[in-house]
Amino acid sequence: MLAVMLREFRLILRRPALAGLVVVLPLVMLLALAGIFRAGIPTGMALVVVDLDRSELSRSVTRMLDAAPELRVREQALSLSEARALIVAGHARGAVYLPPGLERDIMRGARPEIVTFYDNQHMSAGSMIARGARNAIDTALAGLRLSIRQDQGEASVQAQVSSQPIPLQAHALFNPAFDYVHFLLAALVPTVLQIIAAAATAYAISLDFGPGRHPQVLARMAGGVLPAMLGKILPYTLIFLLILGLSDIALYGWLGVPLRGSLVLMAAGAVLFILSVQLIGALAFVITRDMGRAASIIAVITAPAFGFMGLGFPREAMSQLAQSWGAVIPGTWYVQLRIDQSLRATPLDISLWSVVWLGCIVLVLGVLVLIRLRHMRHQIEVGP
C-alpha cells in the first residue's frame, strides 16, 4: 500500500490536470474566498434619498444616513418613481423617503412617517440597508425629540425617560459584529472543499480503475484490491487535510476568527470529514465505473449542500425530507462542529455528537465501497 501511495504522489506531479484539481484549484479557492470576505462587514451600500421636505432636519437626516458605516448616499432623487428606477437598475440598494412637512409636523408633536424602501430579494444587502437606515434616522431624530420635550417644560431626565419609556437591550450572541468572515467564510471553505475532494478522489480512482485501464497491475503492487484502493485514496486525504489546515490558519490567525473550543475535537472532525467526502467520490465511481456519471452524482450530492446546512435557513424549519438529506451530508456536521468549537465554545459532550455522526457516515460509506469492491474482484485478476 505504501508503494501505491508513493506512486500516487508521483502521478500527481506527472499529470497537470490532477495537480490542478487537487492542489491549484483548492488554493485558488481559498485565496478568492479570503479576498472576497476579508473586509468582514459590508459597508457603503448605495442609498437614494427622496427629500421632499428640504428642511434643516431633512438635511441632517441625510447627513446622518451618509455617515452610517453601512450606507452611502449615492444621490438625491426628486420622486419615488425615480428612486425605484435606480434600485431596479442596480444603482442603489434602497431608498429613504422624507415626506414634505417633516420638520413642521415633528415640531408640532405629530408623528410623520419616514419610509425606507429596500431590495429584499438580495436579503443580506436589504437587511443591512434597513438596519443602517433605522439606526441613522433614530439617532438623527433622538436629539430633536429630546429638545422638543425640554422646550415643553419637561426636565432633562424626564424628557429622556419619556423619549424611550421602555428601554430595550438586544445582544447578538456569538457574532455581535455581524461579521461575514465568521458567518459565511468559515462555512464556505469546507463546503467548496467537499466538492473538490469528492471529484478529485473519483478522478484519481478512474485513472487506474476506469474502462481501458489495468487495475490488476495496481492490485498486484498493493497485494489486493482493497489495499490498492486505500493507497489511491490516502495521499489525497493528506493533501486535503493540509489544505484545510492552511485555511484554518488563515481563518483563526490572519482573519482573527475566535477559537474557543477543542483543537483535538476539530482535528478529529476534519479527518472524518475529508474521509467521508472522499468516500462519496469513491462510491460514486465504483458504482458507475464512468467518470462522467460519477461527477454528476457528486454534483447532485455536494453542490446544493450549503442550503441544507442550516446557516441561511434553519434546519428545524425545513421539511423532514430536507432535514434527512442534510443529515447525510458530511459538511452539515463538520460546519456545525467548527462553529460550535470556534464561536460558541459549546461543551465537548454536545459537540461530540457531530463527530459521532461523521464517524457513522464514514462507516456506512466505507461498507458500501467494500461491498462494491467485492463485486469488482472477478473483473480484476490478481496474480500470485
Mean model confidence by pLDDT: 86
Name the overall outline. Answer: elongated
Query: Structural class, from secondary structure content?
Result: mainly alpha
Count of helical stretches: 15
Q: Could you tell me the number of beta strands? A: 4
Low-confidence spans: pLDDT under 50, at least 5 residues? none
Plain-language structure description:
Helices cover 67% and strands 6% of the residues. The mean pLDDT is 86. The protein contains 15 helices and four strands. The chain has two domains: 241 residues; 119 residues, abc type-2 transporter like fold. Strands 2-1-3-4 form a four-stranded mixed β-sheet, with helices on both faces. The two termini are 16 Å apart. β1, α3 and β2 form a beta-alpha-beta unit. With 384 residues, the protein is mainly alpha-helical. α10 packs across α11.
